[in-house]
Amino acid sequence: MQSPKIPIERLSVDETEHTTVYNASILENEIKGIHIQHVILSCDCELKDPSIDGSKSLYLFFKGEGTIIADGNNYDALAESIFLPNSLKQITITTKNDRLHYLKITSRLSPEDLLDLKEFPTAHTQQVYYKKFADCQSYTEPIKSPNTISRTILPNKFIPRIAMGTVETKGPDKVGEHKHPMLEQLFLGLSKNNCTVYADGAEQNLGEYDLLHIPLGSTHSVGVEEGETLYYVWMDFFLDKEGEEWLKTHIVDEDNKL
Hints:
An 8-stranded antiparallel beta sheet has the order 1-19-16-21-14-13-12-22, with no helix packed on it. It is globular and about 45 Å long. The mean pLDDT is 93. It contains 2 helices and 22 strands. It is mostly beta strands. The chain has 2 domains: 8-132, Jelly Rolls (Sandwich); 134-256, Jelly Rolls, CATH 2.60.120.
């Protein structure tokens, strides 16, 4: 039974349910200044997607495959990849023989965010950022077991006050109890994910292609049973840039440093 204390949306990925372009806002008004859309492009589809003034948008591809056309260059829109257009005014996303599912996450920039962007490395704000999750920098963290693979898929200082990564392990295992009142956090369950999120006495199953909001300031943890997989994207939305000090708990794996 769903707990109202842990908001969740179970994304529709029925291959026969949608045609052409499906676009739905999800977890609306959960995080101030953040707008999230679940987009599905059918086979043989083309979508031109312009940038939004005063905002930064990124794309998390989680099922299917297609192509991103950006400034004359092509990028593979594969499941488990991330794309940030940065200074480009428009990108085009196309599909051929497969349906493509992704989240478009748009952050409305505050006056302070606009000032912070000027201090970020030029490459972080002007050049396209594209990564397959498997190619991203790994890290460790005290609250996770040695069996866990964690990766940073979007470091901070690309979009003000935002960072993202993945966590992957096999059960039985867990992410230990912790809390971070300086940030809002979402989890997106990836392929074959089946784990349980606990927060201040409430619990919620997080399955494949579910999007869940960790209640702000809650003491929370994640568990996965024997024979099951834990594999999700975490998305951190910091209340202010000072809160990004939290990321120092992520210890870069020097043996796999990029």
